[in-house]
Amino acid sequence: MKLTIPYTPKTADYFPRLPAHVAIIMDGNGRWAKRHRLAIAKGHRAGTENLREIIRHTSNLGIGSLSLYAFSTENWSRPPEEVAALMQLILDFFASEIDELDAKNVRILILGDKEQLPEAQRETLLHAEERTARNTGLRLNIAINYGGRAELVKAAREIATLAASGHLSPGQISESTIAEHLYTAGQPDVDLLIRTSGELRLSNFLLYQCAYAEFLFPKKLWPDFSVQDYDEALMTFATRNRRYGGR
Ligand code: IPE
Ligand code: IPE
Ligand code: MG
Fold first, then answer.
1. Which protein residue has the closest C-alpha to ligand 2 atom 8?
2. What range does the domain containing 204 cover?
3. Ligand 2 geometric centre to CA of 27 (Å)
4. Distance (Å, whole) CA 157 – CA 14
5. Number of CB atoms found within 10 A of residue 27's CB
6. For the domain that residue 143 is a member of, what is the CATH number?
7. Distance from the CA of 231 to the center of ligand 2, in angstroms?
8. How far is CA 92 from CA 54, 78, 120, 195, in A?
9. Which residue, 103, 128, 204, 216, has most beta carbons within 10 Å?
10. Whose Cα sits closest to atom 13 in ligand 1?
11. Could you tell me if residue 30 is inside a domain?
12. How far apart are CA 170 and CA 90, in angstroms?
């Protein structure tokens, strides 16, 4: 008989330092489904199963912000059945998790354009944001219908509107002006970006916020990425030498 000893997640004092903002590109659900000879929707569902533990652990460690890439502006080009399965998962995820997230003082923010989503999803996401708006714990950013370039276009339009109406002169526009017009306004830059499944690209995620992020590309497919893998990633981050262009 094979005995598996359950993993005990590390506590914050184990790490020499922790990131203030972690971003995760949760990739590999499709390959996971294929490997297990399951329908693609099952792969996406499996991908939400470990999500609960990852969020809980992030909150317990006292990390300030966690940004999760759930659905990109480019993901609309997938087959309609797959898009429908992902849209259903959004509803299911919030129905099952919102009570615990709220009880854990988590503040939810959706990154991306909610207007283009079906009404049920839009309502669910708005409700989750409103219900948790006064919470002061982990800032949980979930990117849905999100694109980094679209976010920069949105910021440019807002800033141009302020300039055109005389509320801001072009010379006053600084890096922080741009940051203030991103979805993540008021939150620190990404310190650690994790992309599972071995793909080595950003796929239009948090382009501005990742300027000095440390990148980690674990091979594991997202549904297999465990709290133990996450702790290992956080430990690797702690050993990185961040120079920001200096000596
Ligand atoms: C990531 O898994 C989830 C979403 C993009 C919604 P994928 O579905 O991209 O998985 P692979 O890359 O095909 O394995
Ligand atoms: C990025 O993964 C988007 C999400 C994980 C939600 P994709 O699988 O869509 O990205 P590409 O197509 O490999 O760049
Ligand atoms: Mg993928």
1. 27
2. 17-147+189-237
3. 6
4. 44
5. 21
6. 3.40.1180.10
7. 23
8. 17, 20, 11, 24
9. 128
10. 30
11. yes
12. 40
- What ligand is nearest to the CA atom of residue 28? 1
In a domain, 225, yes or no: yes
Is residue 49, in this structure, part of any structural domain at all?
yes
Q: What is the pLDDT of residues 139-155, one digit of tens each?
A: 999 999 999 999 999 99
Pocket test for ligand 1, best of 197, 217, 220, 222 (most atoms within 8 A of CB): 197
Just list the catalytic residues.
Answer: 27, 75
> Is the CB–ligand 2 distance for residue 203 below 6 Å?
yes
Provide the domain count of the chain: 1
Q: Looking at the domain assignment, is residue 194 inside a domain?
A: yes
pLDDT digits (tens, 9 = 90+) for 193-240: 999 999 999 999 999 999 999 999 999 999 999 999 999 999 999 999
Report how far ligand 1's centroid is from the alpha carbon of 31 (Å). Answer: 8
Q: What is the pTM of this model?
A: 0.97
8 A C-beta contact, residue 180 and residue 146: no
* Closest to 111 measured CA to CA, from 169, 41, 190, 173: 190
Displacement of CA 59 from its chain's centroid (Å): 14
